[in-house]
Amino acid sequence: MLAVHQRLAELYTLSLKRPLAPAEQDELQHCLHVNTVYCWEMARLHIEALLAESTQDTGWQQEISAQLLEVRVSGKPGKRP
User: Fold this and answer.
1) Rounded distance between C-alpha atoms, residue 8 and residue 29, angstroms
2) Which residues, including other chains, have CB under 8 Å from residue 49's CB and lie 6 or more apart?
3) In the predicted model, is pLDDT for residue 5 greater than 90?
4) Residue among 31, 1, 34 nearest 13 (CA)
5) What letter does residue 18 receive in the DSSP assignment?
6) How far apart (Å, rounded) are the C-alpha atoms in residues 11 and 3?
7) What is the phi/psi pair of residue 24, to 5°?
8) Given 5, 20, 58, 77, which is the most exposed site by the fewest CB atoms within 10 A?
9) pLDDT tens digits, one per residue of 46-77
10) Which residues lie closer than 8 Å to 14 by C-beta, 6 or more apart?
11) What global pTM score does this model have?
């Protein structure tokens, strides 16, 4: 889990108890944006992993696995060759 996911959960929990302050609302929007980018990047890499598997391209599979790990750990998009 990335720190942004933990903060997103915290902000959501706070919003159940009280209205969020304007700064918290801004932070929530930022967290949602980061989460969206993360989700789309993971989806792209999973699709590429399926393509690599279906073409039996083990080199490509290894590159994608490394990119998936990088995104899971850092939250940053994987490097494309």
Assistant:
1) 9
2) 61, 64, 65, 68
3) yes
4) 31
5) S
6) 12
7) -70, -35
8) 58
9) 999 999 999 999 999 999 999 999 999 998 87
10) 20, 24
11) 0.84
Cβ neighbors of 69 (< 8 A, separation 6 or more) are none
d(CA 46, CA 29): 26
The C-alpha angle with vertex 63 and arms to 56 and 72, in degrees rounded to 5, equals 120
- Length reported for the chain: 81
CA distances from 70 to 12, 13, 24, 25 (A): 27, 29, 28, 29
- What is the pLDDT, as a whole number, of residue 54? 97
Asked if 14 and 20 touch (Cβ cutoff 8 Å), the reply is yes
Q: Which residue has the tokens 């940053």?
A: 76
Whether 78 contacts 41, CB under 8 Å: yes
What residue type is assigned to position 68 of the chain?
A: L
